[in-house]
């Protein structure tokens, strides 16, 4: 009783003041508000936006924990590799170890803290200035951001990018629900174009690879995609490693198994759109098959710089890079995706299709998923427009049949 | 001839407090009140002054923009108070009932031989026109208009709604007279929809086209049925009448008296013994809710109507002109610790985001009036479509109403909808947006701009 009534009194005290949204954000985090219905329906369903967002976060937590261990594992694996020892990954043998966790936590948790800290401060400031409640959109964005950046990204860059992403990507459009571009991907795009050396190449994907570059202790920090793009491959990594995620990459996007579990959870809870997830994968496979066909037909020789990635069997595209992560957690963002069911199929398919196309044709930066999703974010309203026109035309036709 | 309408999209909200099938006579109300706000878009012009005596069926006020449409007193008595609000807007007309009721005699009308004009004139002068509504705009029908069809839903699918099969029992003669009369007012058909598994007294009537509906709410909403049977196009008008109001219309035609009697269900989890009452339009709520009903000092909400579309009334309030249900549910004005992320078993949800109502599809829930969250911008997509059976894009039409794009509203199907069609989408809305209000304001805007 004590806390509840104290908070209630504080809420009444702050009502109407500038700081009310900031206080309410914390209050409603602890307690479901005492608001009752007025006009309209007298009862409401149990779900609110906080619950929806929380579901997505729950689906992301396994990826984050895996990412922490993987950051440590990749660091030590690369150190071993530099010394000439190629590691065999095994979950309990050398993956879930205290050493891995310490290195991982030390590099990943600061990313999480900076992402949430900076992002939420911006959100609170805007809520106070504009006098609306703090919306929950950033809860998911703040979780996504650390998972889609390289481990060693300097924290100040991340902070700058978060501010840019939240302000330009979301708040200028009117906040959560109004934005055109996915804020998490806007942040990533900003990092990519502002600090490209920290976002791509063969150094940034493993902890300390950049610092050790050029020294005697140099380690490799390359991803599988990067290797394929240069018509080579990484030693000691097989398909199961790619599937389970014992590979270098952005923090949280390597474990395909956990992403699939997250996807199933999102689909089961009806929070994520299965239409978008499935159609994105179909789109990716289609493009992969087309490229395989091109290679089989002999149109592209082994000397071509596109050969490496074109020759990747189509299904393998799903377990390398971040296409799966993008399909499950990024493309499904309801605000920036298509909003009609039919539109979702088209939208997802094109994301998958374009992702693989960019992946193959852009060897300098072989991961095209975030660009593909941002591109389709822009076209999503157009897709919806044509889907809705179908409904409108049906209505017009009905009228014509009547009058004729 | 009967046709089947099967609704797949929708949601049955099962609540505690369904009415037992017993009917009591409610304590006779001393006061009755007619409130112009029940009749949307009607600007009332008084026909009787304070202190004047009226008989049951005599006009109290009429519509300023259409003087033929009259609103009559449900009882005989004296007008004791005309409550006014801002700008002298009439809020309610209060009538003290006589001990001995007397009715204004309109004279019998043989519906099988009567002409359309006579029927129309009789309905207008007797105040029964108020029961006929029209789409587009969900307002009282324009008597000059010619509807392409008339729709009557005799199937109530809303949560805890009065069972129409039960309350209309034995009223076949009145119902028949009313539908025969209505069938003369339209060039098209009179569509009557009954529950597929029900035993509706309307199923055996003549002069109608019968439809059997099945499936979850809103299958019983007349709007859903119109959309499936014969949707409204631009420039067309359909009329709708509540099945229960047919009884009053029928009795008027058969006996010449306006008898405002109606059977009302008292339901909801706060009611000790939910059951049916025989009462009259506009009577005091207090005559029904306290006897074996709710606690006097309970923290409850009394709703004239069902939980989705009804109006909140105070304990000293009055029964709505169109309602046949009074619902009483607990208020939810309390905080819930970590209510937004803990698993929920005792509330209804269409998602499975740690909400477990999907595990118990037959459980009856005891819901309160808490919003379960704060108002937000539209975020999630695809949720409304699951409970919205009309061939319309619900979120897009709501947004079109909000930014007041008349062309888009028209193209997306505003002529077909009424606020009640958006009650379920409002219930499931994660962002807690007031859908019915948005649609109502959109319709009002269209009525004003396009007419």
TrEMBL record, chain A:
Keyword Iron-sulfur: no
Intracellular or extracellular location(s): Cell membrane
Entry membrane topology: Multi-pass membrane protein
Transmembrane residue ranges: 101-127, 147-168, 180-198, 243-267, 274-294, 314-332, 344-362, 368-388
Catalytic activity reported: a ubiquinone + n Na(+)(in) + NADH + H(+) = a ubiquinol + n Na(+)(out) + NAD(+)
EC code(s) of this entry: 7.2.1.1
GO-annotated molecular function: FMN binding; oxidoreductase activity, acting on NAD(P)H, quinone or similar compound as acceptor
Top-level taxon of origin: Bacteria
Cofactor: FMN
Any GO BP annotation: sodium ion transport
GO cellular component terms, semicolon-separated: plasma membrane
Pfam families, sorted: NQR2_RnfD_RnfE
Record-listed FMN phosphoryl threonine modification sites: 223
InterPro entries: NqrB (IPR010966), NqrB/RnfD (IPR004338)
Entry keyword annotation includes RNA-binding: no
Subunit composition and interactions: Composed of six subunits; NqrA, NqrB, NqrC, NqrD, NqrE and NqrF.
Record-stated family: Belongs to the NqrB/RnfD family.
Chain's role: NQR complex catalyzes the reduction of ubiquinone-1 to ubiquinol by two successive reactions, coupled with the transport of Na(+) ions from the cytoplasm to the periplasm. NqrA to NqrE are probably involved in the second step, the conversion of ubisemiquinone to ubiquinol.
PANTHER family: ELECTRON TRANSPORT COMPLEX PROTEIN RNFD, NA(+)-TRANSLOCATING NADH-QUINONE REDUCTASE SUBUNIT B
HAMAP family reported for this sequence: NqrB
Protein name, per record: Na(+)-translocating NADH-quinone reductase subunit B
Provenance organism: Olleya aquimaris
Lineage, highest ranks first: Bacteria, Pseudomonadati, Bacteroidota, Flavobacteriia, Flavobacteriales
TrEMBL record, chain B:
A Pfam short name: NQRA_2nd
InterPro entries in UniProt: NqrA (IPR008703), NQRA_2nd (IPR056148), NqrA_C_domain (IPR022615), NQRA_N (IPR056147)
Catalytic activity: a ubiquinone + n Na(+)(in) + NADH + H(+) = a ubiquinol + n Na(+)(out) + NAD(+)
A GO term, aspect molecular function: oxidoreductase activity, acting on NAD(P)H, quinone or similar compound as acceptor
Keyword NAD: yes
Domain (NqrA N-terminal barrel-sandwich hybrid) ranges: 5-98
Residue stretches making up the NqrA second alpha/beta domain: 115-258
EC number of the protein: 7.2.1.1
Domain of life, source organism: Bacteria
UniProtKB keywords: Ion transport, NAD, Sodium, Sodium transport, Translocase, Transport, Ubiquinone
Record keyword Transport present: yes
Boundaries of every Na(+)-translocating NADH-quinone reductase subunit A C-terminal domain copy: 263-314
GO biological process: sodium ion transport
Function statement: NQR complex catalyzes the reduction of ubiquinone-1 to ubiquinol by two successive reactions, coupled with the transport of Na(+) ions from the cytoplasm to the periplasm. NqrA to NqrE are probably involved in the second step, the conversion of ubisemiquinone to ubiquinol.
HAMAP family membership: NqrA
Family as reported in the entry's similarity comment: Belongs to the NqrA family.
Subunit comment: Composed of six subunits; NqrA, NqrB, NqrC, NqrD, NqrE and NqrF.
Name of the protein this chain belongs to: Na(+)-translocating NADH-quinone reductase subunit A
Organism: Olleya aquimaris
The organism's taxonomic lineage, starting at the top: Bacteria, Pseudomonadati, Bacteroidota, Flavobacteriia, Flavobacteriales
């Amino acid at each position: 009783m004590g806390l509840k009534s104290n908070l209630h009194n504080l809420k009444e005290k702050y009502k109407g003041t500038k700081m009310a949204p900031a206080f309410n954000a914390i209050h409603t985090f602890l307690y479901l508000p005492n608001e009752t219905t007025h006009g309209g329906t007298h009862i409401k369903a149990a779900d609110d936006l906080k619950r929806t967002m929380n579901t997505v976060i729950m689906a992301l937590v396994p990826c984050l924990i895996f990412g922490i261990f993987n950051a440590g594992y990749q660091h030590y694996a690369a150190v071993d590799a530099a010394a000439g020892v190629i590691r065999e990954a095994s979950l309990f043998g050398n993956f879930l170890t205290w050493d891995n966790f310490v290195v991982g936590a030390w590099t990943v948790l600061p990313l999480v803290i900076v992402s949430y800290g900076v992002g939420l401060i911006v959100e609170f400031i805007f809520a106070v200035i504009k006098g609306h409640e703090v919306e929950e959109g950033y809860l998911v964005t703040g979780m996504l951001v650390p998972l889609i950046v390289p481990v060693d990204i300097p924290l100040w860059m991340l902070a700058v990018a978060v501010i840019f992403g939240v302000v330009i990507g979301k708040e200028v459009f009117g906040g959560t629900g109004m934005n055109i571009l996915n804020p998490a991907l806007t942040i990533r795009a900003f990092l990519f174009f502002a600090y490209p050396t920290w976002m791509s190449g063969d150094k940034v994907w493993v902890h300390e690879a950049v610092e050790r570059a050029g020294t005697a202790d140099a380690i490799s920090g390359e991803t599988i995609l990067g290797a394929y793009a240069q018509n080579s491959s990484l030693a000691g990594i097989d398909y199961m490693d790619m599937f389970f995620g014992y590979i270098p990459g952005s923090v949280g996007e390597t474990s395909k198994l956990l992403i699939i579990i997250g996807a199933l959870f999102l689909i089961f809870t009806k929070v994520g759109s299965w239409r978008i997830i499935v159609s994105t994968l179909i789109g990716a496979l289609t493009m992969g098959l087309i490229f395989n066909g091109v290679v089989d037909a002999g149109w592209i020789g082994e000397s071509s710089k596109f050969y490496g990635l074109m020759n990747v069997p189509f299904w393998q595209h799903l377990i390398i890079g971040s296409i799966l992560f993008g399909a499950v957690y990024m493309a499904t963002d309801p605000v920036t995706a298509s909003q009609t069911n039919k539109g979702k199929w088209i939208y997802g398919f094109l994301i998958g299709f374009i992702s693989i196309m960019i992946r193959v044709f852009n060897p300098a930066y072989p991961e095209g998923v975030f660009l593909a999703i941002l591109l389709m974010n822009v076209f999503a309203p157009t897709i919806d427009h044509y889907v809705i026109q179908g409904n409108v035309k049906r209505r017009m036709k009905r009228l014509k049949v009547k009058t004729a | 001839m009967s046709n089947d309408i099967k609704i797949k999209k929708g949601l049955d909200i099962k609540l505690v407090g369904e009415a037992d099938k017993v009917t009591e006579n409610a304590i006779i109300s001393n006061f009755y009140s007619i409130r112009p706000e029940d009749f949307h878009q009607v600007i009332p012009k008084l026909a009787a002054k304070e202190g004047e005596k009226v008989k049951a069926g005599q006009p109290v006020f009429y519509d300023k923009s259409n003087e033929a449409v009259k609103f009559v007193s449900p009882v005989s008595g004296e007008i004791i108070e005309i409550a006014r609000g801002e700008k002298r807007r009439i809020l309610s007309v209060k009538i003290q009932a006589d001990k001995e009721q007397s009715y204004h005699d309109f004279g019998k009308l043989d519906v099988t031989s009567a002409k359309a004009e006579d029927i129309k004139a009789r309905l207008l002068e007797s105040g029964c026109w108020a029961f006929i509504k029209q789409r587009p705009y969900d307002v009282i029908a324009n008597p000059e208009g010619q509807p392409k069809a008339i729709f009557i839903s005799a199937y109530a699918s809303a949560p805890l709604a009065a069972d129409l099969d039960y309350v209309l029992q034995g009223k076949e003669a009145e119902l028949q007279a009313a539908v025969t009369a209505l069938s003369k007012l339209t060039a098209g058909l009179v569509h009557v929809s009954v529950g597929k598994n029900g035993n509706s007294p309307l199923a055996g009537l003549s002069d109608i086209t019968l439809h059997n509906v099945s499936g979850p709410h809103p299958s019983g909403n007349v709007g859903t049925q119109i959309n499936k049977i014969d949707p409204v196009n631009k420039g067309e008008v359909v009329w709708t009448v509540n099945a229960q109001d047919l009884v009053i219309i029928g009795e008027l035609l058969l006996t010449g008296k306006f008898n405002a009697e109606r059977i009302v269900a008292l339901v909801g989890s706060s009611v000790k013994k939910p059951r049916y009452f025989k009462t009259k339009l506009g009577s005091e709520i207090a005559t029904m809710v306290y006897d074996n009903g709710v606690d006097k000092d309970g923290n409850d909400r009394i709703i004239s109507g069902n939980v989705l579309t009804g109006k909140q009334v105070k304990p000293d309030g009055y029964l709505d002109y169109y309602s046949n249900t009074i619902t009483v549910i607990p208020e939810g004005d309390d905080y819930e610790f970590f209510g937004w992320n803990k698993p929920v078993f005792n509330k209804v949800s269409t998602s499975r985001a740690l909400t477990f109502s999907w595990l118990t599809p037959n459980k009856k829930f005891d819901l309160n009036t808490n919003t379960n969250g704060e108002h937000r911008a539209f975020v999630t997509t695809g949720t409304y479509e699951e409970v919205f059976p009309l061939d319309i894009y619900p979120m897009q039409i709501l947004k079109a109403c909000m930014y007041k794009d008349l062309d888009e509203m028209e193209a997306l199907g505003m002529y077909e909808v009424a606020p009640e069609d958006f009650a379920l989408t409002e219930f499931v809305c994660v962002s807690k947006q007031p859908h019915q209000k948005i649609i109502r304001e959109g319709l009002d805007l269209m009525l004003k701009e396009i007419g």
